[in-house]
Amino acid sequence: MGGTADVLPPEHDSVSARLADSQCDTSVAIFKQSWSTYHKLLEVDFLEHRALYTALRAMLLASFGAHATPVAMLDLGCGDAMQIAASLRQCGAPGGELRLACYTGVDMSAPALDLAAEYLSFLKPECDVQLVEQDMKEFVAASPSQSYDLAFASFAMHHLSLDGKIEFAAQVARCLKPGGMFVLVDIFLKEGEDRVQYMKRYRTNIDEAVTRGIIEAGEAETVMAHIDEFDFPESLLEFDGLAKGAGFESADCLLTDSKEFGRLVVLRKPR
Ligand SMILES: C[S@@+](CC[C@H](N)C(=O)[O-])C[C@H]1O[C@@H](n2cnc3c(N)ncnc32)[C@H](O)[C@@H]1O
What we know:
Layout: H1 12-21, H2 26-43, H3 49-64, E1 71-76, H4 82-90, E2 100-107, H5 110-119, E3 128-133, H6 136-141, E4 148-154, H7 162-175, E5 176-187, H8 195-211, H9 217-230, H10 236-245, E6 251-256, E7 262-268
Parallel strand pairs: 1-2, 1-4, 2-3, 4-5
Antiparallel strand pairs: 5-7, 6-7
Helix pairs in contact: 3-4, 8-9
């Protein structure tokens, strides 16, 4: 695990062991299997999250490090929150360089939220941590206007349809305070690429993980079946139009990984 501390926090080993030991029903068993595969890829930085989260931390400190008041943060599709927890801690949250007043994480997966409670526990009591088991579209639609400084979604928004993303982005913009930001770490299509071409490209990528012995062939099939069912990435150009239509100034890409799957994208709400 050496060298992954910037992506996997110190609690990762104990959480991982506890998850392996836990008794579970079918839905939790499916969660455990995909969590385990995902973490094999993370441990060798196969998905290049280290660069994306390094850029995220720099962006958070540059934008919110000198914030006049502690930041109110909303994490949409937070999952186990493992990576954002590590980044927030490294930024000094809750009371250091990045001051965090509250963190609200929303996800449909109860087992993921159980883990999130553990990874985020270091924020308490200074920061008010709320974890909500709900569809993130419904959550933002029901949230008061201008209530957050920072909305964040990592590898979650690509699960929505294009219409779903358009409505979701508009609701997130409404929930942000003037000058607030919607920060995305997510997968995107290459410009001019369609979903079929994307899937072929991802197949080649995941086959490489099998060839390198990072995951088993069966795990690769599970990953591809999940992507086929749930992943609907857009191009950055499409996203820029969607962001402007939702009331953001633009969608600025701060970093693209070397394989051109993952990007760090910032949507700013006008002041
Ligand atoms: C790939 S995981 C990413 C989790 C976490 N943000 C991260 O970066 O590690 C996607 C997460 O989005 C959640 N999700 C997908 N669609 C959702 C929705 N409509 N409402 C709430 N959560 C959703 C899933 O349950 C899952 O935990």
